[in-house]
UniProtKB/TrEMBL annotation:
<dbReference type="GO" id="GO:0020037">
    <property type="term" value="F:heme binding"/>
</dbReference>
<comment type="pathway">
    <text>Secondary metabolite biosynthesis.</text>
</comment>
<dbReference type="InterPro" id="IPR036396">
    <property type="entry name" value="Cyt_P450_sf"/>
</dbReference>
<dbReference type="InterPro" id="IPR050364">
    <property type="entry name" value="Cytochrome_P450_fung"/>
</dbReference>
<dbReference type="GO" id="GO:0004497">
    <property type="term" value="F:monooxygenase activity"/>
</dbReference>
<keyword id="KW-0503">Monooxygenase</keyword>
<dbReference type="InterPro" id="IPR001128">
    <property type="entry name" value="Cyt_P450"/>
</dbReference>
<keyword id="KW-0479">Metal-binding</keyword>
<keyword id="KW-0732">Signal</keyword>
<dbReference type="Pfam" id="PF00067">
    <property type="entry name" value="p450"/>
</dbReference>
<dbReference type="GO" id="GO:0005506">
    <property type="term" value="F:iron ion binding"/>
</dbReference>
<comment type="similarity">
    <text>Belongs to the cytochrome P450 family.</text>
</comment>
<keyword id="KW-0560">Oxidoreductase</keyword>
<dbReference type="InterPro" id="IPR017972">
    <property type="entry name" value="Cyt_P450_CS"/>
</dbReference>
<feature type="binding site" description="axial binding residue">
    <location>
        <position position="420"/>
    </location>
    <ligand>
        <name>heme</name>
    </ligand>
</feature>
<protein>
    <submittedName>
        <fullName>Cytochrome P450</fullName>
    </submittedName>
</protein>
<keyword id="KW-0349">Heme</keyword>
Length: 498
């Protein structure tokens, strides 16, 4: 009772939610899978803001745009902090901007990443995006069955070129391996049920050789990888700059700007390493997962896909491929792209925040330290905002006269002060890949050995970044002419004339 009075001196109720048990709270109610959909159902049962607790830790889940705007935007001073995850320091992920506590260290890095990826700057990256999008088409033409790895490679290549002027090897690239392995370990250890150390942080201080300390051995491996992925490419850029090779990238620009007559201070070098490394860490998996969803949609919704292809054919014709400059003349393709982002948000529960002060919202108490979750899936599937939200309907982003409306599912990228700084690059890279794939390929269900369609389950992984489970599909060029255009562009890239 005393504990409750100290934690909640106002005596006001917490937001409604499932009834907690003593001590363990809602441990047995907490979803083990499909969390965003279960939280969404709780939203219908309990309200737009839902509360649950586990072992004295409070969680509030925001299920509507209205409450998300009220808390994450209008009260962003109180809701821009991040929850402390005990394993972050141990795994070496503590430089990741998206996990940094709100404060000066975050502010300095945020300012720099915003500068490098703001809308106008991303316009300058268009040639890099288009060059790698053409490479993606060529890869899809050559080995369509490996489409998942081609999409991943496209996104990684764009980000690493922009950030470090680094050309990714198609297979077995050391940087890509490090980043993915480190993200994989972090992804399994950071989730609440990932290891007992999340509930009892004291376990982090026990030696790794003790039984049950597997998480510490994994954390040690992760620490080596996160350290190398932060240091290695910056050293590469420094070597390039020293050798006199022209190096125009985020890192070289930061090195030039931060250097003085004595070179770089340790603090500046830290900022440069953090800002550069977080572009791949924040952008690669999210953007690739969106593209996998786009392919799944092309497979499941042939009518909308054909409509988009009709628009491309009539605007572009068949003598060239679409470019980012054509975007304004193809409203249906843009609406298709926006609906891809809305229909299955790849970050269904965004990235959790923490309340940095006690707060009262509409008569409910939100305690300092509570983890605050933006349920993007619930917002994107709210009937008040989108009619028949489970349907894939690009038209919802069009005006009656067929022009593109001002609506954009921006909530996908979070809200308020911590909104994703990479959203303009994601927008451009995803649009380019979707438009080019639509222009060149017919995507259809793969056939089994008896010539029957292999049916697709609409199933997704349940993690911070949600991917469709692997599915087979047939990716074939729509026409001979389209195939030749892809080969020509790829040839120009190889000859260095693109
Ligand atoms: C489809 C692609 C992407 C999606 C869905 C996405 C989504 C998100 C979300 C939901 C957040 C958390 C926002 C919040 O706390 O409210 C975030 C943060 C972040 N994203 Fe993205 N992102 C994408 C692409 C990118 C790209 C391409 C980059 C890098 C160039 C990037 C870099 C970051 C960084 C650095 C943060 C941390 C920001 C901070 O905490 O201040 N993201 N992103």
């Amino acid at each position: 009772y005393l504990g409750r009075r100290v934690a909640n001196p106002s005596g006001l109720p917490y937001p409604p939610g499932p009834k907690p048990l003593p001590l363990v709270g809602n441990l047995f109610d907490a979803p083990k899978h499909d969390s965003s959909k279960i939280f969404s159902a709780w939203g219908k049962q309990y309200g737009e803001l839902v509360h649950m607790s586990m072992f004295g830790e409070h969680f509030v889940i925001i299920n509507s745009l209205r409450v998300a705007e009220d808390l994450l935007e209008k009260r962003s001073k109180k809701y821009s902090d991040k929850p402390v995850i005990p394993l972050i320091e141990l795994t070496g992920w503590d430089w990741n901007l998206g996990l940094l506590p709100y404060g000066d260290r975050w502010r300095v890095r945020r300012r720099e990443i915003h500068q490098q990826f703001r809308a106008e700057k991303v316009d300058d990256y268009a040639p890099v995006v288009m060059k790698h999008a053409h490479q993606l088409l060529d890869n899809l033409l050559n080995t369509p069955a490996n489409y998942q790895s081609h999409l991943k490679h496209y996104v990684g290549a764009v980000i690493l070129k922009i950030t470090y002027d680094y050309d990714v090897a198609h297979e077995d690239d050391r940087y890509v391996y490090m980043a993915e392995r480190a993200a994989g370990i972090g992804g399994t250890l950071f989730v609440p049920g990932g290891t007992l150390a999340n509930v009892f942080p004291i376990l982090c201080h026990l030696p790794a050789w003790l039984p049950g300390m597997e998480f510490k051995r994994q954390a040690e491996e992760c620490m080596k990888l996160t350290t190398e992925m932060r240091n290695m490419p910056v050293e590469y850029v420094k070597r390039q700059m020293k050798s006199g090779a022209p190096s125009a990238c985020v890192t070289s620009e930061l090195i030039r700007r931060f250097s003085n007559s004595n070179g770089l201070s340790t603090d500046s070098e830290d900022v440069i390493k953090d800002v550069s490394a977080v572009a791949y860490a924040g952008g690669a998996e999210t953007t690739a997962a969106s593209l996998k969803t786009a392919i799944l949609i092309m497979l499941l919704h042939p009518d909308a896909t054909r409509e988009a292809q009709r628009e491309i054919d009539s605007v572009i014709g068949n003598a060239r491929l679409p470019t980012l400059d054509d975007r304004g003349s193809m409203p249906y393709v843009d609406a298709f792209f926006r609906e891809v982002l809305r229909w299955h948000p790849v970050t269904p529960l965004s990235v959790p925040r923490k309340a940095s002060e006690d707060d009262v919202y509409e008569g409910y108490f939100i305690p300092k330290g509570a983890t605050v979750v933006q349920n993007t899936w619930a917002i994107h599937h709210d009937e008040q905002l989108y009619d028949e939200p489970s349907m894939f309907k690009p038209e919802r982003f069009l005006e009656r006269d067929g022009s593109l409306s001002d609506r954009y599912p921006m909530t996908l990228f979070g809200m308020g002060r911590r909104i994703c700084p990479g959203r303009y690059l994601a927008d451009s890279a995803i649009w380019a890949a979707i438009a080019l794939i639509l222009a060149v390929f017919d995507i259809a269900k793969a056939k089994d050995e008896n010539g029957r369609d292999i049916e697709i389950a609409e199933a997704y992984t349940d993690a911070i970044v949600s991917h469709p489970l692997p599915f087979a599909c047939s990716i074939k060029p729509r026409t001979r002419g389209a195939e030749s255009l892809v080969r020509e562009e790829a040839g120009a890239v190889q000859n260095g004339t693109a």
